[in-house]
Every structure is written in C-alpha cells, then in structure tokens.
Automatic annotation (TrEMBL):
<dbReference type="Pfam" id="PF00005">
    <property type="entry name" value="ABC_tran"/>
</dbReference>
<dbReference type="InterPro" id="IPR003593">
    <property type="entry name" value="AAA+_ATPase"/>
</dbReference>
<dbReference type="InterPro" id="IPR050763">
    <property type="entry name" value="ABC_transporter_ATP-binding"/>
</dbReference>
<dbReference type="InterPro" id="IPR003439">
    <property type="entry name" value="ABC_transporter-like_ATP-bd"/>
</dbReference>
<dbReference type="InterPro" id="IPR027417">
    <property type="entry name" value="P-loop_NTPase"/>
</dbReference>
<protein>
    <submittedName>
        <fullName>ABC-2 type transport system ATP-binding protein</fullName>
    </submittedName>
</protein>
<dbReference type="InterPro" id="IPR017871">
    <property type="entry name" value="ABC_transporter-like_CS"/>
</dbReference>
<dbReference type="GO" id="GO:0016887">
    <property type="term" value="F:ATP hydrolysis activity"/>
</dbReference>
<keyword id="KW-0067">ATP-binding</keyword>
<keyword id="KW-0813">Transport</keyword>
<dbReference type="GO" id="GO:0005524">
    <property type="term" value="F:ATP binding"/>
</dbReference>
<keyword id="KW-0547">Nucleotide-binding</keyword>
<feature type="domain" description="ABC transporter">
    <location>
        <begin position="5"/>
        <end position="234"/>
    </location>
</feature>
Amino acid sequence: MSPIVSITNLSKTYGSGFRALKNVSLDIQPGEILALLGPNGAGKTTLISIICGIVNASGGSVTVDGYDIRRDYRQTRSRIGLVPQELSLGAFEKVWHTLCFSRGLFGKPPNPAYIEQVLKDLTLWDKRNNMLMMLSGGMKRRVLIGKALAHEPMVLFLDEPTAGVDVELRQEMWALVRRLRASGVTIILTTHYIEEAEAIADRVGVINQGELLLVDDKDALMHKLGKRQLVIELETPLTTLPGELAAWKLELSEGGDKLAYTYDPHKAHTGIHELLQALADNGLVIKDVQTTQTSLEEIFVKLVKGKDEKR
C-alpha cells in the first residue's frame, strides 16, 4: 500500500539561522492515527505547516496522495484538513455559515446533509445558529474541527486538539477521532498529552530539536523500550542484599523494605519463580508483591533526555 503522506529529507532553516527541522523523513499510511510527541519548539507545528502549505520548506519534498505539495498545491491542499492550535474564528459568524463557507473555499458544492452530520458528530447541532462569540472555548475548538472536515479531506492534521479542554471533552474528542479513522480519514495529531497518544494512536513519532528520533507502532515501542518491574515488599527491611541474589540485579529501596526486579514479560523465561524461591531460601518473608509497567511518558522522557545529553 502506498503512503498517503510521504516526507523525504524535509528541512527548515529560518532567516535567523534557526534550524526548525533537520532532514525529517516519514511515511504515513492511509487510515492510520499517528501521534507526534515532542516538547515546545521541537518542530511539530513547523512540520505540519509545511505539509499544509503554510510554511515553505528549505529542502526536501512532501507528497500527499501522490501529489507534490509545491507543484500540485491545489490537489494536495484539497486533500488536507487542518485544525490549528489557535482559536482563530470570527466572533459574529454563525456556526452553520462558518462550516459552509469553509466547504465553499475548496470549491465543493453545497451539501447540507454532510454539514449537518459533521455538526452532529461534534455535538454542535443545537449550536448551529449561534454566533461563535457565544461559544465556550471547547465548543470553538470543535468548530475548528468542523471547518477542517467541511470539504471532506482524506488527511486530517490536529495540532494540539485537546489543549485547554476539560477531561470529559477530551474523551469525546478521542472518540470522534476514532470514528473519523473508521470512516477512512488518516489522522496526524501533535500532542503534549502522553495519554492521548497512548489512548488513540496506532503509531507514535518522537520529535525533538527538529529531529525525528523514532517512529514506531505504539505497542512495539512499548515492547522494545518499555520495561516491567516486580516490586517485592519485605516483612523485615534489609541493610544490604544477600550475595546469593546478585544474579537478579535487584534494586533495594532506601528504606530497605522493597526490592525491584526488572524483567522482559515477553520472554519465555522471566526468572521470577527462581527469584521468589531464592528469597525464601535466604529467609526473606514477602509482605506484598506488585508489578509496574513503563508508561509511554517515561519512554518519551527517556528518549528526549538521552538525545539532549549527547549534544
């Protein structure tokens, strides 16, 4: 299957000399949800802005559905919907007219039934005749999504889509994103919320200081870079670890009452059974046992920190 978006050696250097993107290459497959994670200034918005034709690249190329974003601007832009971070909407426009106008900008014929469905999907149907100035911040963000969907794009870019919205609305937006993907729309979102990527993304890309550090299937990333720990609480604290337990490379807590054993849950032999037997053989009484799994947030922090330390 050919990628719906193909990015090759994309770079951007501003007049000040600042390199916002450094030879970024990435293929995005039709119908997937890709989450781009990165701190402020990492290059996420610059990347999206170049693909959407808002910012010119300094080098490299991008195609959307096989069309080059420079040579075939009209074809690529008509295939893309963009939801920006900023809530830039006219105060006195009505919701219904805003979506219809956006659709017309792309040369699409009127389709009231489609606009109605979009508003219903965004829980905005009862606000269709309201002026934008009367809406809450969360509703305005939904209107931005509606504008981006008005011309029926194949690819939807969401730049920090749930920034500043409450938890309930965030969950609703996640559900909307899943429905859009189910309808065939390819979705690329940037986010500061690690749980957002963990909840809805198929693949995760980590970008920092203009470089794409990695792109991988979310579950595969958790498998390769995540770890699981067995945390054993002891009845009687230790001052030092018995030498017989050295093979398990245990971590002893400051209070001496907990042991942490890191293992790969995907291996056939984890060594847990032998460890528990060794603890018993050394007269250590177990009070409690828990397992913990590395989160995507911990993986992200580790990757970004590791890259920064190499500079």
